[in-house]
Write a structure and sequence with these properties.
GO terms for molecular function: hydrolase activity, hydrolyzing O-glycosyl compounds. This protein is of the alpha/beta class. It is 26% helix and 22% strand. The two termini are 15 Å apart.
Length: 187
């Protein structure tokens, strides 16, 4: 049990990845730093679009970093004056939890070839996510901004910081597409 707790703590260690399409508090924080240092104008809105990517590239070029428009741990350390990114301990929408950055896709029981049941035997439905159980253990409760609360009840055919978000219909899953954002681990 202690080994599992240590492993889970390591899996949720602080890291940052802000790139085109990213959303959330990490993006807002990076935007704020870019605004303070004169690389971005306007307000920090938490959405990484073309202006934020251009500002990151401008910063990277000015600091002699690899110019890729992505703010990972290395770019963040320079942007923040040598600090390591510390994710917020509490979600701004009052959902307590530890922030965790993921790449997400979507699925439904209506997808061709999918089962109507999850790996744990429950029905595939809104409120379920598929995970790599080595990163997010089955049974973990999460909060996904714009989606709501969900439980890791399914296993995806992927590894690492990726989740598959369940929807009730194929159309909803298709509309979700692929996104990068922060989720909050509730327990």
């Amino acid at each position: 049990m202690l080994m599992l707790i240590c492993f889970c703590s390591a899996a949720f260690a602080a890291a940052i990845l802000v790139k085109d399409g990213s959303r959330g508090q990490a993006v807002k924080h990076v935007q704020t730093l870019l605004i303070e240092q004169g690389y971005l104008s306007g307000e920090a809105d938490g959405v990484c679009g073309p202006q934020t990517v251009a500002a990151i590239k401008k910063f990277q070029e000015a600091k002699g970093l690899e110019v890729d428009g992505i703010c990972g741990d290395g770019t963040y350390r320079v942007l923040s004056g040598g600090k390591t990114y510390e994710p917020p301990a509490v979600d701004p929408e009052t959902h307590a939890g530890t922030m965790f950055y993921v790449s997400a896709t979507a699925y439904s029981a209506q997808d061709p070839g999918n089962s109507v049941h999850t790996a744990t035997g429950t029905k595939v439905r809104h409120g379920v996510i598929a995970v790599d159980p080595a990163v997010i253990p089955l049974g973990t409760h999460v909060f996904i901004p714009g989606y709501g609360e969900a439980v890791a009840e399914d296993i995806g055919g992927f590894h690492g910081n990726h989740i598959d978000v369940a929807f009730d219909t194929y159309g909803e899953a298709l509309a979700f597409g692929r996104q990068n954002f922060e989720i909050y681990i509730m327990d």
